[in-house]
Structure formats: structure tokens, C-alpha cells
Amino acid sequence: MKKIYTILALALTFFCSAQLSQVLPYTSTNGFGTTQTDDTMIYNNEFYGSTAGTVSSVELRKFNGTTITEIKSFPGYYSGSLASTMMLGSFNKTESKLYFITTQTLYNTNYTVNESTSELWVTDGSAAGTLKLLTVTRPGNFAFNIILTDTHYGAFKTNSNYVGDKLIFSTYNTTMVTDGTVAGTKPLTANGIPIPMLSMPGPKLNGKYYFSATDGTLHSTDGTDEGTQNIVSNSVVSVYSPMSMPLNGKFMFWGNNSESGTELWESDGTAAGTKLFYETVPGPETGKIIYGNSIDMANDGKHIYFMLANGTDREVWSTDLTVANTKKIKDANNYLPQLSVLGNGIIYFQENTISPPYLSKIWKSDGTPEGTKQISDVFKSNSMALYQNSLYFQRAENKTTIGSNQVDNNIELWKSDGEPENTRMIFDIYPGGLTSPYVVANKSEPGMFFVLNDVLYFVAKNASGKFIYKFKGDYTFNGVTNNNWSNPNNWNSGVAPGIQDLVNIPAGFNLNIDTNSFGKDVNVSSPLNLSSGNLNIGGYLNLGANITLNNNNLNLKGGNSNISRSTLASGHYIVTNGTGTVNIENLDAARGTVNLPIGTATNYNPISISNSGTSDTFSARVSDGISNTTNGAVNSTWEISEATAGGSNVNLSLGWNASQENSSFSRNSAKVGHYLNGSWNEENSGSVSGTDPFTISATGITSFSPFSVMNFGALASNNISKNQVLVYPNPFNENFTISLNENSVVNFYDISGKLVSSSILLKGNNTLNKSDLQKGVYIYQVKGNSGNVIANGKIIKK
Known about the structure:
single chain; 9-stranded mixed β-sheet; 73 strands; signal; T9SS type A sorting domain-containing protein; Secre_tail
């Protein structure tokens, strides 16, 4: 009889405004008896698992996000002096069917194993649709009577071992195929010959599934005998060693031959295309050896990762299937037990130290040595999940010493977007710590993570017991407490967003960014004021309100982030009213043109920038007014800089309104001006386009300092005229230059009028170091030989 476990009143507990809530108590009669992902599976938007194995019975169950339904019970039995235990697990699925295995172990009176029986079942989620397909009984304790999953490591499987609705699996001695019927469950043959036990599952490529057998042969199949063939018949594939998922039309595996020993091989699915790819140790294998581990052959969509070992000397490598880019990315003298989860072009993996204090660590890599970094330590290795492109996991906040031992303290729910500064505990579900000098309690130990319908579920403890929890990552600002971005209660999720999160700022707020803040795709419909932190964007920024930088920065992270084009006509822009800049990472030819809708408090002066030269980070801001010329010009100065000087080839477009043009400015002869080496220089410019606003472009720019728009034909000279004083760059970091035609003295005042610094100037160029000044705006005043003030203005320390 089907049992429905309804939601209890206790399931309505919420934490502040967070979307973390209890769904159901987690007990022996209302839960699943495992935390291993191999023993659970998502099928038809429901979570399938089972109760823990017992002498009496084990139950197949499913969970739809609110209720748990028992599908079928599998009883154990007593037979005279013999007893048995029942286990259910090792789920797998095809395009429309879900499969699982039950294993009954029969014990003698002295608790030795008499025999074990495994059964293969298929289910559609109903009791009537749950059918037995195969039974395998063997004497003794053999856990692998039937091997159903596509990995021998249990967790984080890729579920590739099927073609259409035909599942490829194995018994203890034979590779099998099933279509979900008894008649269609049979040995798989190649040229009429049964294939030995499936050794290591592999990828799907070109409509076929590839796998190796225990005799070292490589096979492909479409699920039929006639469509199954040996790719390599001799013992090439290293038995029980991992194979990769496909990348760029090929897959990789550990192969053997007499010349190279065990090395890295590649295959495009043909005999001719199956060959040695890379020798990690040239010649017969006498040095480093392969390491049979889940991180071997992990695929993040851009790289394949593998690990080498020689005793305790272990290394993590990556390749993009070119020899030139096959390289070591990390030394790993400690043990790296498994791949965690994958993102787009990103891998997470863990490292357990093999000596005290026995810490665990999580690492992130983009496939390069410089992009491989630790993001967390004191990590509990048995539970983690990738949800909305961020990593969720259980972690001990610290280690507590009890006697001569160290134990994990306060094991709670943590989150990382891949950046160390955004790796943090997000919920302390069971607050507390030591309950006595020798007992650590009050740790929720979240585990069994799974995702249904874009909601993260997991099991954790609190003071009332164990519960199934759900968490919805809704990063919509609600301003419940105040207008500060950093306050977690101001977000529907109960957590401030990270660089991988989708952020929504509705209208009706005046949001204050009071710390370094993050978001992937960010929709802004309320003004943002950066008071004491930078805003970091990992995807797109859609402006429906102004963002005011003050002395902070807006950073477009990675190689794809941008400010959506529609914002250029929306009337909203980024106000560069202080030292703050908009920074674009990885600007190169592949990234193309980036549009920056920037302006001052009173004027909108957008730029567009592209770089066909060396990839670099570019910074931009704009201010009202233009220095060191009295001729026809637009009264705006764009400060544009690059992080690393040299190698750039930039095309730049500048925008302005007619109200910003001085009286002698002529659009017909306008050019982009570049202030360099003490004078304004003409860049290779096009013609002015548009009708208020106007735009002009320049090409082939290779150095950076202030830019503006002006009429060079109206200038008397590009040199410094009598009594003219030039101050650049402005803003500056530590050093800046003052150029003038007579010996002078310059005084610097803060905005309150207090004198903070003075320097003696000589005729010509004077480089001043003002690293001792605090960041901010200063007034400078230059007095000539006669004591008269010959120049004054504002300068900004970044």
C-alpha cells in the first residue's frame, strides 16, 4: 500500500527572511538511509532513494519537494538458521527509464556470508511499474554481482552509459544491455562473442557509447549486437583506469604499450584515431604512474584533468587535447581523493592532508597553473553540490583540540562562488559548539544535497532532530533591515550574492554598497551608491538606475562580462564623480567592443573600447572640463589607462552632448586629442557622427593618459605656452608630473583648505611622489617667481 508522508506543521520554520526552510523531519520512517549520490538519483523531477538496509526490509522511495512516497518494499527473510539483510541502491537511468539494484546478503549462524543475490529492477515511479529484470546469485560476499553505474567510485557520476533507452551495464563477468524488459536484458556481444565484464565506462560520441572491458579492449555500441564493435582488440586500455568524457570530438584514457608503458592516449572513436597522445614520462614507465582516482579524466568542458603519482609525489595536470597545453597545474603531495563538481570551464576538487592536523581543502582550477587556487579548508569531504553555478558544501568552522585529538567544530552550510573572499558560512543551522570540555555538539552536518526544480535540498540537524531542508537562491534585494548590500537579511535568499548569482535590484530603494560586492547577471532598477566597496560583475549589468562610484570601482570580471547595450538609450549611466573607475578585465580581440555608459553628475559621456592587441585590464572615468587648451574643444576629459603598459592596439569612441561644446568648437574639424608628453596630440580620428549626442572614434591607440575632443587646427601650438602649467596624470596613484616654463612652488590643500604638502618646481618637467597623501581630492596652487599664482586646479589621488 502506498504511504504518503505529508508536510508537518514543524516544516514551516524559516530563518529570518531567508529562503531556507524545513520541509520534513528526517527519521528512519521518513527519510532516506544514505548520503551517497550513487545511491540516489533525480528522475522525472523527483528524487529517488531508499531506506537504510535492515534485516526486515528496504523501501524504494521518491520525494517531489514536499512529500515522500513509498513505491515498493523489498523484504528480507529468515530461512531456518540463516538470516539476511537487504540493501537498495546504485541507481542509473536512460532517456525515459530508471534502474536500480537490490542486494540481499544471506548470513550463516556465525555471521559469515553464505551467499549474495543482486537483482536489477526498472521503475516508472509506481508500484505496478516496478519490475524485476535480472537476478544474479553468487556464493560468498560479492558486492559487485551487478554493476549499474558509470563509475566505480560511487559519487559524482556522469551517467553516460546508455544509448537512447538501452542501458549498458555489467555483471561480475559479462557486459550487459537492457531495454527495460526481461527479454531485452542480455549479454552484449561483438561479432557474436560476449564481451567480458565492463572495466571502465566512458563517453558517448557520434551517437555511440564507448567503454573498456577487463581484457583491455576498447568497444563502441549503439545498444545492439550488430552495432557493437571492437575499436582496439589488443590489451591497450589500462584496466580499471578512468576514461574521459568527450572534448573537441575526442576522448582520453590511460593506455599501455611496450614502448611507453602506461601513458595518456586519445581516441576519436576509430581504430586509426586511437593512439598514444602524451608521454608523461618518456620511455618505458619507470617514473610517475597513473593514479586511479575520480579526478582522473575529469572534464570541465574546456579541459580534461588527470593526476599522476609516484609514491607520495602527486601532481594534477590538465590538457585541452593539444600537446602544447598539456601541463602540470598543481603539486599535490597530499592525497586528492576525488573530483567535487564541475562548472563551465571550472573544476573543483578536494585535498586531504596526510599528516596532522588532518585538514581538508577545496581547490578551484580553470585548467591553468595561475588559475588553480585554494578556496576553502577545514572541509568535510562527504557532501557538496553545484547549485546556480556556486558550490555548496558542509565545512567545519574550525578545529577543536580535545585531549590529544583534533575534532571538527561547528559543521555547517557553506557556499563558494569560486573566489576565496566569497567562501563563507551562509547558515548556522545548529548554533553552538563545545557542550563540555570533551564533547563537540550543535553541528548541523548538512548532507545529501540534491536539486529539484531550481531548489537546493539537503538533510541537516538542529536542536529538534534531523530535517530535510530546502534553499531557494533568490537574490532579490528587499531592504527588510536597511539599504546596505552586505546585510544578508536584505536579500530574499538570506545570503548576500556572489559572483555566480543572478541579482535583482527592484525599484524603490537607494541601495548602499558598503563592502566589496558581487553578482553575475545584475538588473538594477534602484540607484546604487558605492560608499566603501567595489562592485564586481561576472556577467551582464543592466542599468535601470544610476550607479555612483565615488572613490570605488565597478569591475567587469572575466572575459565576457558587459553592460547591456540597451542601457545606452535608457537615460541611466555610471557616475564617475570621484577617483572610481570602470575596469574591464581581459579586453582583447576575442572580447570585441565593450560599451561603457559613463558620465559625470551633470553630463553623460559614454565610451566604446576594443583592443586587438595583448589582453589587458582597462580602466575608464570621465570628468567635466578640459585643461591646458583655450581653443575649440568639448569640455570633458576621459581618463583611460591600461594595467600593463605596451602591447595594446585600441579603437576608442567618445560621446558628448552639444551643451558641452565650447563656443569656438567646430564638429567639422574635430579630432580625438590625447594628452601625452606635456601636450595634446591628434589621434587617427574619424568624423563626428550622430545628432546630439555626438560620437567620434579614433583607431590604433597604443598608449594611455587623458583624452578629449578638440579642433587641432585652432591650436596655436602643441607645446607649453608662456605661463601654461600642465599636471598629469590626473587622477594619479603615487607619482605625477607638473610641467611649466619657470621656477615655481606648488602647494596642495585638502578639501577643508588645510595645507598638506608643498614642493619646489624647476622650469620644465617635475615628477613628484605624493604616496604619503591619502586617497581623495586636493587643490593645487602654483606660484611663480614673482609670488603670483600662475595656476590652480584639482588633482585626485587614487
